[in-house]
Amino acid sequence: MAIDARFPLTVYGSSISYFTGKLENYFRLKGIPYRLQSLVARSVVKEKTGSTQMPAVEFADGRWMSDSTPIIEWFEAEYPATAVIPQDPLQRFFSLLLEDYADEWLWRPAMHYRWYYREGAHFASRHLVNEIAADVPAPAFIKRAIITRRQRGGYTTGDGISVDQVPGVEAIYRRTLEQLEAIFRTRPFLLGDKPSLADIGFSGPFFRHFGLDPVPAEIMRQEAPAVWEWAARLWNTRLQDCSGALLQGIPADWGPIFDEIGRQYLPYLCANVDAVTAGRKRFDANIDGVQYRGARWSKYRVWCLQQLRVHFKALASSDQVKAQALLEQYGCWEPLWRHGQLPIDAGFCEQLPFHVDAKMIEVYE
Ligand SMILES: N[C@@H](CCC(=O)N[C@@H](CS)C(=O)NCC(=O)O)C(=O)O
User: How far is CA 95 from the centre of its chain?
Assistant: First the structure.
């Protein structure tokens, strides 16, 4: 990759953050130079990007970006030589679907394992206090308690996961491990002998959460060592050194993950659409037998659903026929189109990655 005046980038984020880890995996794979900076005033990030979310990226020329998915799309367009997004239109579409699923749905078990278990909350709150709140004038144990309370209130107990939902949420992780273990026992990356966008998508939950937090990491080491190995392999791979190729077509062993998307993620997105349409900031939803109560609405995730539709419509009609057949086979087609009109304002999220209109979930600062 040609090094230009925009580099090195500064990535503002935490070294235990889901999406910071995802973006770092992407930059490393692509050979894009960056340095991670954890301590920055949230007001500065908000002023530059419109949101306090992590990661935010600052170019040497002074421009800023936020939101890992559109950031990756932007870099892919700028630096197509070492492409991460597959060229094949069907592989591209289904990789984008997997990325969205890993970003938005595996977030649920990842946040649960980190903040529900005392070991996880202790590790993460301590790390975050040292990393981003060291200069806040208060005793460390109080800062840790405040962070833990905020994260639980925003993303676990406050997002529909109480004790009754714990087995269902943990089952998502166990099934994902089984699905990925079956794949990584046969090949090094999700789509063949070299990494692609699907690997980057799964690196979000796996690199800085499941592979790092004490409880899920131990489960992974014991039950899915090939997944453990893949997470490290991805971190240590540079596309410019890869001689391997991608598989042809959509691998059959992605099927159980699509099945999960059809039974869980897309129905959740539909329940979220109903909530946003009705103006309900909290909603109940029965997802595949798990009754979530008081989940938080997300306007951002309405946009995610809209984006999946946009990607589908961008396919040539012959590819749409093939994609539809696969989506129908795994129960994804009906929920993808269940709602005719989505409750989304014109122009919403259109300035991404240069300006953020909405966080994934609005949690108080
Ligand atoms: N869609 C965004 C999501 C970013 C995001 O939600 N990041 C988390 C940290 S991993 C965050 O900053 N949350 C904001 C908060 O908790 O206030 C992306 O892909 O970058």
Answer: 13
Do 273 and 280 meet the contact criterion of CB atoms below 8 Å apart? no
- Tokens 């005392």 correspond to 118
Span 159-177, mean pLDDT?
98
Residue 1 confidence (pLDDT) above 60: no
Distance 360 CA to ligand 1 centre (A): 7
pLDDT tens across 244-277, in order? 999 999 999 999 999 999 999 999 999 999 999 9
Answer whether residue 190 shows pLDDT above 80: yes
- Cα 154 from Cα 141, distance rounded (Å): 20
Phi, psi of 246 (to 5 degrees): -85, 155
Angle between helix 118-132 and helix 107-116 axes, rounded to 10 deg: 90
Question: Ligand 1 pocket: which residues have CB below 6 Å?
Answer: 17-19, 52-54, 67-69, 103, 359-360, 363
Domain locations in the chain as residue ranges: 9-82
Closest ligand 1 atom to residue 204 Cα is 10
Task: Answer yes or no: are the C-beta atoms of 220 and 228 closer than 8 Å.
Answer: yes
Q: Is the dihedral of CA 287, 289, 290, 295 positive or negative?
A: positive
Interacting residues of 335 by C-beta distance below 8 A, sequence separation 6+: 262, 266, 267, 269, 270
Ligand 1 closest atom vs CA 54: 12
Q: Is CATH 2.60.15.10 correct for 9-82?
A: no
Residue nearest to atom 20 of ligand 1 (CA): 67
Closest CA to 244 of 301, 287, 200, 191: 191
Q: Are 311 and 336 in contact (CB under 8 A)?
A: no
When pLDDT is averaged across residues 211-227 and rounded to a whole number, the result is 98
How large is the C-alpha radius of gyration of the chain? 20
Q: What angle do helix axes 118-132 and 214-223 make, rounded to 10 degrees?
A: 120
User: Of 246, 269, 237, 298, whose CA–CA distance to 97 is shortest?
Assistant: 269
Tokens of 131: 């990393």
Q: For tokens 């329940």, what's the residue?
A: 271
Tell me the average pLDDT of the chain: 96
Residue 77: predicted pLDDT? 97
